[in-house]
Amino acid sequence: MINKKLFVLPAILMALMTTGCGNTSSDNPVAATTATTAIETQTYTPTGTNTSVSGNDYSIYLDNTSNWSNGAGSSVSLNSIVNVPYTFSSDDTNTNYDASTAITYDFDSLSSLRASNSYSDGVLTIDEAGTYILKGTLNGHILVKKGVGNVTFVMNGVTINGQTHSAIYGKKNSPISIILADGTTNTLNDVASYTFDEDDEPSACLFSKSDITIKGNGVLNVNAKSAVSDYESDGIQSKGDNGIIITGGTINVTTQGGNAIKSKNNIAISNSSNYMTLKAGGTGECIKAKGYIYIKDGMFNLTAGGDCIKGGTITGTAYGDGIQATDQLVISGGNVNITTTNTTFYSTDDSSKGIKSGCDNASGTITIAGGNINLNTQDHAIKCKGPITIKGNPSISITASLKYKYNSNEYEGGKGIT
Fold it and tell me: Residue 202, preceding bond cis, omega within 30 degrees?
């Protein structure tokens, strides 16, 4: 298994970003009050055979070094060429609900049900839209029937242990919103071998054929246990038209062979206050989507047997580093658009790079094997302590701003690749 640890970092967490990965003074100025408008622009179009170019503490492997063109010009904002794929709404973040109409299901002492719902042999069937407060331990699963409409689960210290497949199973036209109540820990477990309901479904610990929204400030632990070949269960999976939206919660997802978070369509994340720890076993990916993956902000600790992030479009704006890997970082396709904004550096730990791998105690590697990559950075666009490998047919466009002197000391400007 390849172990990859990656952090995508929000603006407000600059002081916490190093995670043991401090920069040396050769990487960053001690301080700079402004950035110049001068840039270094590099555009790569791969052809020919591999050529190795050695540097100080890195090697760059290019198909042909003559395909790099360097020159000065005006800084270009990515806003003019990148469409933000999703605008978060108040409904995505609102955790308020009408307690007078909400139904509480305490699985430790379940005594009554809403008339339209049913409970039998550990299966709670939801057949009516509304808000449901969940507590206690359920050894079974929750089934949200087809065409119910919007269902909100307020998780208030609940554990659901799936007995045949998923912990929560939602069908078509029944979007699921999950509110993680403050100060609570909530856990979803599935089983090591699934008994499918229909057409190899469900196939994740938290599974819905409609959209899934997760918000709040509680903790959600998702443990997907199936590692059966060709039937590895994902942690969280949506087949809805929009996909998965995450705006809150400390979310910990572990799989034995499946993907941590997967969407048939899109994934949008704006979760700046809490960590998301995703561990995908086998050949699973941490975040996978056929549509776009939009990370507005958030803190991530990702470990994957496959790719950490694999999807159509990844768009992020960061005060610090856009994507940082401690060990190995692989981009194999899709559209990656990263803008970093910090122009003032006060310590050697400050960093505003686009794509970065490797710390002082880890060499790190970066492999770019495909995709369309647009980087507009105030610091180095791509920085790696170890080798950088570019192969296949990626399109890479870089704008890296240069920095001023500070206190009579002159520091190297932002470079495209270093």
Answer: yes
